[in-house]
Amino acid sequence: MMWSESYRPKSIGEMVGNEKVRAELATWLATWKKGTKPALIVGPPGTGKTTMATLLASQFGYSVVGINASDVRSKSRLNEILEPVMGNAGLAGPALIFVDEADGIHGRSDYGGAGALSLILKQATVPVILAANSDASDKMRAIVKASTVFRFGKVPPRLLGVYLKEILGRQGVTIGPGTIINIISESRGDIRAMFNLAQSFAHGFSPEVARTEGYKTPEEAITAFFGAGSRDEARRALESMRGDIREKISGIYSSIASAKTLDLRRAAKMMRAVSDADMLHGRIMRTQQWRLLRYLDALLASAFEPKLGIPYSKFSVSWPLLNRIRWDGNAIKAFAESVGPHLHASRSEFAVLHMPYILACIKLGAAEIDVEDEHADIIKKESERIK
Amino acid sequence: MAVQGVMWVEKYRPRTLGDMVGQENVLGSLLAFVKKPADMPHLLFTGSPGIGKTTAAVCLSRSILGDSWRDNTLELNASDERGIGMVRERIKKFSKFVGIGDIPFKVIILDEADEMTADAQTALRRIIEDAAAYCRFIIIANNISKIIAPIQSRCAVFRFTSVPKECVTERLAEIAKSEKAKFVSEGIDTIYEYSNGDLRHAINTMQAAAALDGGINKANAKKAAGITKSSAVDEILKLALAGKVAQARDSVIELLRVYGMSGADILRNLNMAVNRASYDNAIDIVRIISEYDYRILVGASPEIQLSAMLYELGALGSK
Ligand SMILES: Nc1ncnc2c1ncn2[C@@H]1O[C@H](COP(=O)(O)OP(=O)(O)O)[C@@H](O)[C@H]1O
Ligand SMILES: [Mg+2]
Predict the structure, then answer these.
(1) Are A174 and A290 part of one and the same domain?
(2) How many C-beta atoms surround the C-beta of residue B4 within 10 A?
(3) Which of A77, A122, A245, B297 has the most CB atoms less than 10 A away?
(4) Which residue is closest to B292 within chain A, CA to CA?
């Protein structure tokens, strides 16, 4: 089951974000009488507008007659749906009309729909709630005029974080802190998107989050960043990259580190900006102050210098070193884990302070040491590195 | 033979507090705990590497718990067990089973606790409280300023100090004699100079020197002293200041990611390397290092912070 469905709040109190507007809406319905203007909830997707409308209705004992934009084909169709409601025919309790995606009523096929809607709004004998992503379009003007507007904002990242962790706890799922940050920054205040992302991560997928058209892959975005004509343009290139903090920072870091022709003074200045961004990253991880995320692109943009022609590089180290980290690093770790405890030494204490001497003694023939066969290769390899 | 039987550091690790050298101030109080274990609070041992912190913790545990000390002591390296979740699980399991034998409490030695993040330490504080009924903690840290205040305040703090020269050289001579190794006192003095009161380093160096032709003399001591990976930082510093930042960076990343050295350790050694060398602009160099000591604490990626530092050192150059 989709988390976004199974965790749809059962009461208004369980919802996250937009506390103040939610209270205002409750007051609106509690004090509703004939002649009260309809409520128009305006806000970005996935912030709980639909959830709020349905919960509000049920909590105050109304039955919802819902219409969404796709139902509204014409003036006559709309009247057909709504007229019986006005007279309360055949409903369990008093009716409440809920028009979802009200800003979707436009275009040829809905011809007359918007007009009919605003007429109904004026004459309604039952409470009407409308929901829309935006109230800016021409088509919405009449509707806005006839209603009281309640604005929902994006759910702040901090709240998303708290909520997500609670859900993960209930699901018994663990996701790394880095991934949690990515999910939160990626969902941009949209609870539904956050659920869907989190669920797919929890099931081991790493969804192609750059689905929205206009978003760039790290390679495209960072290439655009270094190729930009101004710092502003560079910042916009970063904004157009999907919001994975770690990938942004490390993409710029590894590109600078791999650049062949870059004078030291300039590189140092650029790296310092990357260092600033990494501090911000650390702070966000520690304090869960997700709102700080909004400074990331600007901080990284100060690493920008025009006309340097730095190519994108995914890795910050050469291929041989990368292999050494992967293979030798793991072998040394395994060796340290098997021998370290006998020397009361941690992995790093063993590898840095003890192992070189052990290898030297073996190499000089001063000691016969029993080690498991699986460590023979790394011992030989590391011995050769000792001068 | 097993490693611990071959390596002198381990073979000659003191088995009782009385065998230890130096640390007089600390040892007196610890011996009092052995006499009256009921009075022992949680302990926090701090001080530079190789001066007996881990040894003292193990000796104390052995003296208080007697024959069954192994079963009733849990030794954890905080830095290895990345997640605090793992630490919590192991401590939970350990404190659950009933102690074997007639013992006042079980002992949990948490080494290198300063490598834990502040978050993990906050979680640790709860763990300490939960386990306190049956367990005593001995927390070990090179750098006490990286231990959060709530933990410090729950522990009696013992500051270990560098082992004085006479103690080091005397101990080294004892070991050399008992190993029937060829040595001259000048060789041992040289080892002391390189070790700065770090006995682990001194003993390891001596064993390697003893294996070289000519035994423990000045030249061999010099050769052997540089074997430890932490001495790679001298070279790193030189490379960076000479503007060979890419090479310096490769070496730093090798230390971090192949050998598992911590960023804090790299910086500490780098600082010592500056002190050993004599640059005219040493102050500027130290300023950069100390700035990144802060940045690495706040930041998310030690590799990024250390790299940025190397670029700054490269841009500064040496004088
Ligand atoms: N004060 C000391 N007395 C005797 N030996 C010591 C002392 N300090 C360190 N050593 C030697 O150095 C090795 C490492 O000491 P350890 O207690 O692990 O140091 P730390 O925990 O302070 O880093 C021990 O095995 C022992 O051989
Ligand atoms: Mg130790």
Answers:
(1) yes
(2) 16
(3) A245
(4) A275
Please indicate whether, in this complex, the C-beta atoms of A318 and B228 are within 8 angstroms of each other.
no
- Given this model, what pLDDT does residue A211 score? 43
Kindly state whether residues A45 and A139 are assigned to the same domain: yes
DSSP A307-355: T--PPP-S-SS-HHHHHIIIIIHHHHHHHHHHHGGGGT--HHHIIIIIH
Q: How many domains does chain A fold into?
A: 3
Residue A83 above 70 pLDDT?
A: no
Q: Which two tokens stand for residue B287?
A: 């300023």
**Contact: A365, B211; criterion CB under 8 Å:** yes
Positions in chain B whose pLDDT score sits under 50:
none
pLDDT of residue A114: 66
**Distance between CA atoms of A188 and A194, rounded to whole angstroms?**
8
Is B49 touching ligand 1 by the criterion CB < 6 Å? yes
Is there a domain that residue A12 lies in?
A: no
Higher pLDDT, A385 or A214: A385
Q: How many Å lie between the alpha carbon of A366 and the closest alpha carbon of chain B?
A: 6
Q: Which of A121, A151, A181 is the last residue of a domain?
A: A151
The pTM is what? 0.70
Domain that holds residue A178: 160-301
Q: What is the CATH number of domain B165-227?
A: 1.10.8.60
Q: A344 C-alpha to center of ligand 2: Å?
A: 7
**CATH 3.50.50.60 is right for the domain spanning B230-316:** no
CATH number belonging to domain B3-159: 3.40.50.300
The per-residue pLDDT for range A111-134, each reduced to its tens digit, is 556 667 777 777 778 899 999 888
Residue A109 has pLDDT above 50, yes or no: no
Query: Across the interface, which of B1, B227, B305 has its CB nearest the CB of A370?
Result: B1
pLDDT band at A166 (very low <50, low <70, confident <90, very high): confident
pLDDT at A209: 44
- How far, in Å, are A263, A279, B304 from residue A231 at the CA level? 19, 21, 22
CB contact set of B223 (below 8 Å; sequence gap of 6+): B209, B212
Do B227 and A357 lie within an 8 Å CB cutoff? Answer: yes
Tell me, yes or no, whether A94 and A193 share the same domain: no
